[in-house]
Amino acid sequence: MVFNFYNRLTSRQQSIYRQSDDIKYLTLQETSQLQHAATALEALLLKEDLLAIESVCQTIANDIVSQIKAPRLKVQVLSVRPSNDEGELHGLYLPEDEGKPAKIQVWMRTAKNKKIVAFKSFLRTLLHELCHHLDYEHFGFPETFHTEGFYSRESSLFKQIRAQSTLG
Question: How far is CA 158 from the centre of its chain?
Fold first, then answer.
């Protein structure tokens, strides 16, 4: 499936888009540690422990990129989401730049009410940004697009990590 902006892309970008759209799943071989980490993350969000949350997010990212054989990246958890008239920023992927490793930034509080982000939204945001990293570093795409395949890959990771959750 292509979204409306597809027609505004160059033929090269359309090719990348179609390639991305064709990849529907990311299969992890070992998920038990990721499932335990996700359960811990859910509890830590309730405790609002930023440093521990960041540590667990880094563990999740390290485990996934290790299994998929992609380069590591840094995860940074920040407090309140930045916002403007168009909405809130949930997460951000910053590719490798001038020798600095790629970085994911995620925010744990909503901009408007400063409330802790719901666990599933927080984990999906982390996985979403991680999928941008995998588009560049694993699949070798020169650009990363929000294709149906992209969202399917994000969901496939989420479902594998949450398969045996005790907290929901």
Answer: 10
